[in-house]
Amino acid sequence: MYRKNKRHLQENLFDFTSLISGPMQNDIMVSEEYLLYELIFSRINEDDFRCLYSDIDSRPNAPVNCIVTAIFLQNRRHWSYAQLIDNIKFNLLTKVALGLRSIDEVPFVEATVFNFLSRLSQHFVATGENLLERVFDALTQQQLTSLKLKTDIQRTDSFQAVSNIRTYTRLRLLVEMLIRLHRALSPEDQTRCEELFAPYIQKTSGQYIYGLSKDDLDGQLAAIGAVYHQVHTMLAATYQDVEVFRIFSRVYADHFAIVEERVVVRPGAEMGTDTVQSPDDLDATYRFKSGRSYQGQAVNVVETAHPDNPLQLIIDVTVAKNNRDDSDILHERIDAIKEKTPDLDEMHHDGGFGSEENDTKFAHHGVTVIQTGIKGFAAKGVPIEITEVSPDWYTVSCPSQTVQASPSWTRWKADFLQEGCAGCAMSEECQLKKTKAGRVYYFNRAEYLKKKRLKNIETIDKERRTLRANVEATVAEFKRKMHNGKLKVRGRFRTTVFAFSMAVSINFGRIYRHRYRKKRPRRKVSSVYAAA
């Protein structure tokens, strides 16, 4: 049964802060934890989480604002669940952050946090809504308003959030799935399929692979494909609703196909980036970027960037499959970002976010895009400028002449006259197609929008042309809580918990430093594990 937590608002005769000295009380009042209590804990709308609990009379829930703040604090401090509980028990400042007034009060145990996250996950799967995102949005709007920050200029960037999974080779993953499926079978079915499973279940999947030579791999893939087919045929009717069998079936479909009633191994080139990377994280996808391979999710971050702001705050975070292009991820968020910050006028991003679709949507919202890098290779040859006079009238300019473009079925055509080209000092560098009359240049609206986007940076003040770079420091703040770029968790939902927790934490840290920049020296993180 849902019950709102109001205990922290009541005076307590045994409030532990009354038992400590005045100087220590003053230290508490200027601590991170007390500001966390004021800005985060006290402003969480617990009613948003009412849907997670039963409407009938039953045992009341643990305080929602305590649990949510504890999740944020856990990610901020990079604590394990055991460390979180120990700090709640023995760390006075942690008690302050969670609104606990009694020195021996412990509002929940580890299992309570797990159950709460499970309810959040079920709600996320059923509705597509992450309630922690609602908390983040509400807190951020309050902070933007109270600090009077300008949101008309923003910047964005993304990073790879690698899942906490083992990296499997193709054959090792296939063997691992057989081992896990065998464990889930009834004793009768284990006996019935003993001959099929026997070669693969005597060792771990790693030990099995290490015992093979390179020349054995192709033959092993064909052999295990036949086993997969037979196992699937024998067990599908009985185990189709068992989770491990569903994963097994997905892996089977990823790696093998039936051609003329024979099981054949799918070539690696046919396998998409959505194939199962690990049985422990079915949400993880594959991405090869900048010479490195990644398995997991991608996180996109948008923050304010107006030079007049005393500090900048993150205003939007989203988690998506890492095999999606950055421009696609941003495209889905443009409407939401504009809704949260209606005065958005200028968005800074790098070359990975540029696309015709994004240009069109930003233009619809009256937002100027400032791109600081070109995706792919830099253009060569003579510079060409396109000007849109009206929706059906373009002029095209090179260093020596300007002509009006004419439409064709699928694109526009600009004919440059031979007379103008003849006296051009850059004629030898020109890469436009030659014709009898001169040279010709073909383009479409996407090309026009791209050139316009790249030229926008020349229309703003020089000091604003490097605004995008600072968002990389924000990305670094997220990644600082990841070991070698790898999360401590698995799955898309748990990645969103990390992302929103860190976004709340980063914003809070900036506000705390802004408020106490000249009033208080920086102190070390308080923790019962500080000496460890």
Task: Furnish the topology, listing elements before pairings.
Blueprint: H1 22-29, H2 32-39, H3 64-77, H4 81-90, H5 92-97, H6 110-127, H7 131-147, E1 153-162, H8 170-184, H9 187-192, H10 194-197, H11 205-210, H12 217-239, H13 243-255, E2 256-259, E3 262-265, E4 285-289, E5 292-304, E6 314-321, H14 326-340, E7 346-349, H15 356-364, E8 368-371, E9 385-390, E10 393-397, E11 402-404, E12 406-407, E13 412-417, H16 418-422, E14 433-434, E15 438-443, H17 445-455, H18 471-479, H19 492-515
Parallel strand pairs: 1-7, 7-8
Antiparallel strand pairs: 1-5, 2-3, 4-5, 5-6, 9-10, 10-11, 12-13, 13-15, 14-15
Helix pairs in contact: 3-19, 7-19, 8-12, 8-13, 12-13, 14-15
Report on the architecture of this protein.
The chain has 532 residues and is α+β, with helices and mostly antiparallel strands. It has 4 domains: 7-129, no CATH class; 149-162 and 287-376 and 454-494, Ribonuclease H-like superfamily/Ribonuclease H (Nucleotidyltransferase, domain 5, 2-Layer Sandwich), CATH 3.30.420.10; 170-270, no CATH class; 385-451, no CATH class. Helix content is 42%, strand content 15%. The chain has 19 helices and 15 strands. The protein has helices spanning 22-29, 32-39, 64-77, 81-90, 92-97, 110-127, 131-147, 170-184, 187-192, 194-197, 205-210, 217-239, 243-255, 326-340, 356-364, 418-422, 445-455, 471-479, 492-515, and strands at 153-162, 256-259, 262-265, 285-289, 292-304, 314-321, 346-349, 368-371, 385-390, 393-397, 402-404, 406-407, 412-417, 433-434, 438-443. The strands form 4 sheets. Strands 1, 4, 5, 6, 7 and 8 form a 6-stranded mixed beta sheet that branches. Helix 15 links the parallel strand 7 (346-349) and strand 8 (368-371). Helix 8 packs parallel to helix 12 (217-239), helix 8 (170-184) packs antiparallel against helix 13 and helix 12 crosses helix 13. The longest helix has 24 residues, at 492-515. The radius of gyration is 29 Å and the shape is flat. The protein starts with 21 loop residues before the first helix and ends in a 17-residue tail after the last helix.
